[in-house]
Design a protein that fits this description.
Number of strands: 4
Bound molecules: glutathione
CATH architecture of the largest domain: Up-down Bundle
Oligomer: single chain
Distance between the termini: 27 Å
Helix content: 55-70%
Strand order of the largest sheet: 2-1-3-4
Largest sheet: 4 strands, mixed
């Protein structure tokens, strides 16, 4: 069975959401971020610095997958692989769609995630005394242009590729989600706001988040 190394409270959410959409069964092998404090550290034996896990992923990050002996890292790359392998409407129907899905994914990784993660850290995730509002505000400023690009791309059909829900929507939505503590970005981009609400109302996303909420924090 497919193994996903990681936690619900990590970027493994991307792979878990997709697997639930595809109906692909998986075993979640809990691996905790080494720099994390709190209940998860006590609950799960493996961390991202455990020698046993470093044999799987020498980069020392989660998620990784083991798909029948094929080890892959990078949450969004894993999703492109799983969507191609298991086919259906979530994956590319042809080389042109493959190109679009890869391009949107690379776009999210470079244009959105490095900034949206700073919004998450400095408006929500870090302890209050470690938050720097200036870092969060600068990240929001830098996200204005990519959000406008995404808003325009969604204007016609409400999805990114061929007017249907695909792995590209999951990959981009999971990077955009980190910026949810910046409502000003969503108010300025109503297509992005409506699209994120639509994809996050899918049963597979809701099931994944419900399990995430139950995981030790
Ligand atoms: N680009 C990587 C990022 C992986 C990453 O940084 N994961 C975090 C958790 S979401 C992690 O492993 N942090 C702990 C560590 O680096 O030791 C991906 O998308 O998979």
């Amino acid at each position: 069975m497919l193994k996903i190394y990681g936690l619900y409270r990590s970027r493994a959410t991307r792979n878990i959401w997709l697997c639930d959409e595809l109906g692909v069964p998986f075993e979640l092998v809990p691996v905790v971020q080494a720099d994390r404090a709190g209940a998860a550290k006590a609950a799960f034996p493996l961390t991202t610095r455990s020698p046993e896990f470093l044999k799987i992923n020498p980069n020392g990050h989660i998620p990784s997958i083991d798909d029948d002996g094929l080890i892959l890292h990078e949450s969004l790359g894993i999703n492109l692989y799983l969507a191609k392998k298991h086919g259906g409407t979530l994956g590319p129907a042809n080389i042109a769609e493959d190109g679009l899905m890869s391009t949107w994914t690379a776009w999210a990784l470079t244009e959105v995630e490095p900034r949206s993660i700073l919004v998450l850290y400095h408006r929500v995730a870090k302890p209050v005394e470690q938050r720097d509002p200036k870092i969060a505000d600068a990240a929001v400023e830098a996200l204005k242009a990519p959000f406008a690009v995404l808003d325009k791309a969604l204007a016609d059909t409400g999805y990114l590729v061929d007017g249907r829900f695909t792995v590209a929507d999951i990959n981009i939505a999971e990077c955009v989600r980190y910026a949810m503590a910046a409502p000003e970005l969503f108010e300025a981009n109503p297509n992005v706001k409506a699209w994120l609400a639509k994809v996050q109302s899918r049963p597979a996303f809701k099931a994944m988040m419900a399990k995430r909420d139950l995981e030790p924090g």
